[in-house]
Amino acid sequence: MAKTIINAKIYTGEDTIESGYIRFEDTILEVNSMADYQENPADETIDANGQSIVPGFIDVHSHGGYGIDNMDANPELINVMTKKMLAEGITSYFPTTMTQSDENIEKSLAGIAVSAESNPMIQGIHLEGPFVSPAYKGAQPEQFMRKADAETMKRWNEISGGNLRLVTYAPEMGDVSDFETYCVENNIVLSAGHSGATYEQLMDSKVSHVTHLFNGQLGLHHREIGVAGFALLEDDVYAEMIVDGFHITPAMVKLAYKTKGADNILLITDSMRGKGQTEGESELGGQKVFVKDKQARLENGALAGSVLTFIDAFKNILEFTGCSIEEAVKMSSVNQAREFGLTNKGQLKVGLDADIVILDETLNVHKTILGGKIHEFK
Ligand code: FE
Q1: Among 66, 268, 273, 286, which is most exposed with the fewest C-beta within 10 angstroms?
Q2: With contact defined as beta carbons under 8 Å apart, do 176 and 126 qualify?
Q3: Do residues 366 and 318 share a domain?
């Protein structure tokens, strides 16, 4: 049975319909202005009463939440976790791994692969490390870090069921050209992160994406613009940002937005196990983490992922930069779908998957619709 949401302000990702309706089954059947609406008696009709509708959010960088971590390598738990993410407005997700032993990474990839077979939210996997630099380790455990190599990547992509779509690595760690070629040929986006690469090294690499801009990388200096400067300067490079107000100050978020514009910024949560849990002791990559005042930190004080929800990232980017909701939608959904070739996702257009978020007046998630199925939150 088709469902129709009426009287909604619809942000399609391309334009805005002030008062519109959207009709869908598992995919979107119609999106139009209320002026063209004709009631279909067989439909289930939901009156949005002027609430806003945006495309489902796509999180390409998150380690976990709700007491669960992708490194637990448990497909059932991953499914429990993604279901809870619907309350944040997330409808597509790249489970993200940590720098760990080969054995633990392989277990995790195999676990995610099982989940991906039946879980429609899993649209790829983000491998964060172990091919990263100890000099920019952040909360990645140093003892497992090493240079990237094509054979390992090939083996891991096979274990993952071919689901690897994004890899965070340090391109300055020796000759990684075979590795880069393998990734490009297999649709795996190369992202510089936990890296001290210089602008020149990056221009010589095949990097097209930067992991959590400003965090865990060579920053912007007037004689060496580093990873951060590369991300800001190069128009075709996508940059992730953790917009929780702690990883990057609101002023720096605004500076990045003013420099780069909304078309190549990706909001991410980089969330860890402690998201959605009572604050206190937690864990990341086998290390003790303390969550306090919405910040997750290792014993040494380093930030260890976040407890940010995606809807809060969406609200924060509006607040910190003064951008429009249309631009926030680009950064939460449209850009991700375009970059990763998720051709059925990211916008509210006829024929695409019915992945929809209904937001109330204060931009809280009221309902999330995944493949046409409605999940209600308040
Ligand atoms: Fe990281």
Answers
A1: 286
A2: no
A3: no
